[in-house]
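Hi support team,

I've been running sequence recovery on a batch of backbones for a student project. Most finish fine, but this one hangs at about 90% for roughly twenty minutes before it completes. I'm not sure whether the input is malformed or the queue is just slow. I've pasted the structure tokens below so you can try to reproduce it. Let me know if you need the job ID as well.

Thanks,
M.K.
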């Protein structure tokens, strides 16, 4: 069963090109570690909510855009093995090195989590994962 990691980030709008370059450099690592797909989405229609919303979730300022991203894994075991590799003290990859590939956003306001799909609807009909 597939597994998803989801991310929401506030990125200075002026850093859009830097963010895209950062993502293009870093996202290949997820694929090399077993992910089947990585999607990075720049906020285009992110309305304010009455109680909460994406902007408030990451404390986005007026000069920032919201980025919604996810990494699709074939299963949780593959994802867990990849995270163990990346978090290892021996892990050394320039794509995750902040000196070589600096984050063009405030990492303290990035929110993320792992998610197990429960319903999937495709063009061919409804499938339960």
């Amino acid at each position: 069963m597939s597994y998803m990691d989801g991310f929401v980030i506030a990125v200075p709008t002026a850093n859009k090109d830097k963010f895209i370059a950062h993502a293009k450099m870093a996202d290949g690592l997820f694929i090399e570690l077993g992910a089947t797909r990585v999607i990075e989405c720049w906020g285009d229609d992110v309305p304010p909510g009455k109680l909460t919303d994406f902007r408030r979730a990451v404390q986005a300022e007026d000069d920032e855009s919201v980025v919604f991203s996810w990494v699709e894994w074939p299963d949780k075991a593959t994802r867990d093995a990849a995270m163990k590799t990346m978090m290892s003290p021996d892990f050394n990859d320039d794509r995750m090195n902040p000196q070589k590939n600096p984050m063009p956003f405030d990492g303290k306001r990035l929110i993320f989590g792992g998610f197990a799909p429960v319903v999937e609807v495709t063009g061919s009909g409804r499938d339960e994962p």
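--
Follow-up from support: It reproduced on our side and the slowdown came from queue contention, not your input. The mean pLDDT is 91. No action needed from you.
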